[in-house]
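wait is this the right file?? whatever heres the structure
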């Protein structure tokens, strides 16, 4: 029985490796899971600022956990991840709109 598609609104931030993993997996299985994927860009930096949180990359324990977690998830889902040599430079100095 093929029911109607479920609508999934996917809020993502292009600088988030978790967003990349989720995007890849959702796209891979959207036909299997019978979902209509709606992409909704968001700005996690703004959410972090307004909620008083620090970005995980700036908190040593969170950064260490995320590095291990992303490696595990990348292998599990078969989604390759690569990181820039200096992620802080990319995120905070160059930004998305530098030339």
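ok assuming it is, sequence goes like this
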């Amino acid at each position: 029985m093929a029911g109607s598609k479920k609508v999934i609104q996917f809020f993502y931030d292009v600088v988030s490796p978790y967003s990349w993993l989720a995007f890849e997996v959702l796209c891979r299985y959207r036909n299997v899971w019978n979902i209509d994927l709606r992409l909704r860009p968001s700005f996690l930096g703004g959410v972090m600022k307004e909620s008083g949180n620090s970005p995980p990359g700036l908190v040593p324990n969170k950064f260490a956990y995320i590095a291990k977690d992303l490696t595990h998830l990348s292998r599990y889902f078969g989604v390759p991840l690569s990181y820039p040599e200096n992620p802080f430079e990319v995120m905070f100095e160059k930004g998305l709109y530098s030339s």
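The beta strands are 6-12, 35-41. so i think its the right one actually
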